[in-house]
Amino acid sequence: MSYRAPVKEMTFYLDNVLDAGRISETEKFAEATADMTEAILGEAARLSEEVLAPLNVAGDLHPAHLENGVTRCSPGFDDGYKAISEGGWVGMAGAPEFGGMGLPLALTSCVGEMMSGACLSLSLNPLMTQGQIEALEHHASDEIKALYLPKLISGQWTGTMNLTEAGAGSDVGALRTKAVDNGDGTYAVTGQKIFISWGDHDVAENICHLVLARLPGAVAGTKGISLFLVPKFLPDANGNPGVANNAGAISLEHKMGLHGSPTAIMEFAGATGWMVGPEGGGMAAMFTMMNNARIGVGVQGLSQAEAATQKALEYAGERKQGRSPVEGGTGTILDHADVRRNIMTMKTLTSVARAIILDAAISMDLSKGLDGDAAHTQAARAAFLTPIAKAFGTDTGCEVAEIGVQVHGGMGYIEETGAAQFYRDVRVTAIYEGTNGIQAMDMVGRKLMDGGVAAFALLGEISLTAAQAEAEAPDLAAFLAAAEMSLNATTHWMVDAPMNDRFAGAVPFLRAFALTLGGHYLLKAAMVDASRMPLARFHIRQTMQQVDALCSAAREGASTLYALDAAALGA
Question: What is the rounded average pLDDT of the residues 45-61?
């Protein structure tokens, strides 16, 4: 089966559920009209289905590898990347003054889903570059912007993000990489970074590394970290790749999945770099890149959920096994209740993840296109939705891909069917760009520092949907209203609770919020298109039964977690 880009589903939610038309009403995104959106999604679908999807298995079976110090990518990846870059897809959201299209994140997220669904390993390359473009646009000097942004936006050069070290993973403030002022506007960067996605490759002419490092005498922790741009090849007087910098991959990781994406251990040995942003401003600059990247990683999880659902549905519609328990059935395993339950779960979770991600992206776009209080409100809304989009999007990718293996039965465990690759590839998305536990902690920590204003505003939207649905679907409206009340009470509890008690219940709280938002989106969709009512009913009356239990668990606090000491845990 070949991948089919879900353009119809994307446009339905954008147009009928999330009111994405508001974006093109702003001056900043006035050119993102319905006609342009249709044309871009159509062309991205063609690229994804015809060019990228055929590379997915090759990337899995023939991983990137180091050969005499040079990283060789999977077969066909050079041509696939060339199609992406020459089509202008890397710089979709980039500033027009540097050659970008200036398109909204909601649209680039749809394109990202299609490319990731077709070939996740290759699509990770432009995602990293897009994040670097965002960081440089906001924080780099005019000289750096003028030299690097046109190259990155065109796809001639690619970008990476270098945070993690062997002794500094989630605790970035513990990093040991150093930078010393050379006295000529450049810095000598020395240290080792691990888990660097597309840290080295042979599909573009230069690789630009954003590296977090500490200057001599800098204060401890994150406040002492600065950000440096360190290219693989130093630009010559004409801005072309010149001599090799003292920066390179010393090995590539052997991974559970994403074999086509070269994940490098990078060594910087007095490499020449340029500071981006002010001294000590590294984390602020990097977070600009990470916030967009977190939505992008949520998109990656969503993409694998969609691809796994397509493959499972095709298999279930062909596989004949046992006697059909329903009159007039298909004669395939789709007739069996448990298979139907699995498929319905896959479809509803995928739809919920897509709606959350696009809603977050739309709010981020509006925060840039509007002014004053309206912009601030949308920025706060986007900030609250972002950890949900990342965590639930990637949790859904993992869960749906795992269900897809189950639908295939024994054949799902056989690599030739392709069902297992989705799970192996997507699993890391719940880990990188901040583990999903950290996303949940961010949600109940930083994102509730406003006293819950953004959270309660979203709960108000859910309550309004329940009220609007009372006449058409009274039972579903009642279920949704009850879930909102439980979540509302739990949000009040979170706002008032000590921080570690919040952290202890953060993961169930995030999932409860995501599932309830899902009921809100699916019910709105069903009120527009009655054929979608069965999906809304399944999610609200079955999956959302978890919400009360999740909220109860979220309010338990931390004491139970520490009832056993470390020695007893190992007994």
Answer: 97
